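Q: Structure tokens for this one, please.
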Amino acid sequence: MLTSVQERQAALEARHPRWVPRTLHGALDDAAAEFGDRPYVVTDSLTWSYREVQERSVRLANGLVAAGVRPGDHVAVVLANVPEFVTLKFAISRAGATTVPINYLNRRDELGYVLRQSDAVALVTMDRFRELDYLAALDELAPGWESAGGGPALPALRRVFVLPMGEQARAGAATFVELGATADGWQDVNGLGPASVADVLYTSGTTGSPKGVLLTHDMLLRTAYGSAYGRAFQDGRRILFSLPMYHVYGYVEGLLAALFVGGSVVPQLAFDPVHTLQGIERHGADDVLLIPVMTMAVLDALREGSYDLSSLTSVISSGGQSPEWIWAQIFALLQPREVTTGYGMSETTASTTVTRPDDPRERLLTTNGRLRDVGIAGDPGLGGRLAVYRVVDPETSQELPRGSVGELLVKGPGVTPGYYRKPEEDAAAFDSDGWLRTGDLGRLDDDDYLTLVGRKKDCYRCGGEQVVPKEIEDVLTGHPAVVQAHVVPLPDRRMGEVGVAYVVLRGGAPVTPEELRVYCAERLAKFKVPRYVLPIDAGDVPSTPSGRPRKFLLAERALADLGQP
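A: Here is the predicted structure, written as tokens:
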């Protein structure tokens, strides 16, 4: 039974009375000392306790050191939400190295780019996942990788270890089992400490090529504690998610946050709404991490079936565009006691704003959360927070008063110091005072609640008038037939640019594109009405792991679909 938010936050502060900077494996060791026999990783087929995860990470760290991995080296990881991801993550920290978690949906050239750009000396990869064959990609990128490493194409890469996913192991290739088969004894390496870089996390990019975001051990753990504090985790919280652990959402808000309350994570390999509901029922999950498109699919599945969700007390739905109706439906169908939403990005380690669990529902409808209170993990000089925002004029960079819409700039100890080997991107991303330009448009109210309005680069001009796509998207998702809407510009000789709205329709919805244009025309100024409305399948919308649409790819699709007028 959940106690009040204040009582749960007080219990967290009693357990952690002051902030102690640690490495990731140091935090695991502390949790294992306190919660050794408690389950930490739970799947349909196995359960690993804190002590078991700790012991497995020691054996894997021994294997990495024996394979030549040294403090400061980069180890690339291509793993889905398998339990081995968890043990390997802490093992890389224990060996003093840095993890380069790679999106397992990357194709050959994307994989090659990250391996080259990150200077990874070792790679731990699945042999295949779904239709993707990673070993075939390596064969083309670096023939003979089994014994020769990356060769001329990937000169830093020395070793590759393969985790078979139900396939027969590749002859001559070192395996994950072999990596963890070394002796249990462990002598600490000369690690680089809590202030060293734990992850080089490559953004999927809403605007272009991925960049390696630098995240330190202390940043990750402070933000994870802030997640537990801001959402008021109770002791032993069990968190279910299919969000990939290579991304900050599942990694920080799930895997790492659970450490501070001796909680469990229930990672699922891929999102399926029925599997999500079955997982909550089977494993007694208290909490589920979702992005809005997942939330809508789960709600649809609930309308068609019955599940015992009595264990579920908390839901967070964050990261993408949410139609207004979604919040009432979450309470009505999932029936949690608490629902939250927030805003963040890889560059800010994870969420920097979140609604409070006991906020009035109006906050869910009108904001993306309040600047996150993080308790002992915060910076006293920033009012006890890890990140603070200012709103500036996108053209002049002059700070705007509260309530004004402008570009969001962020600063604080939760913000990345920069990108790996990307000096030009660093210079473009940070202003002269060290504030990170988020590229997002929004406003802050007097109570520190932030409301997103759109992306600076998404805006376009139609007939000289500026158009903010989110305004149109909000209108379209207000139609009962529209599940998602994504508006991008298309060049036009007469108007400069016109809008193209890609819409995901509810199954069997009897609505035509022209009817949706009329619907917009009744509610928007003429220059904001999209010239084209094109249906698209949800699976065809390119997006980041946190659910943000990659609109530059949709704009390219619009050119291909419609041509340039």
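A few notes: DSSP finds 18 helices and 28 strands in the chain. The two ends are 60 Å apart (CA to CA).
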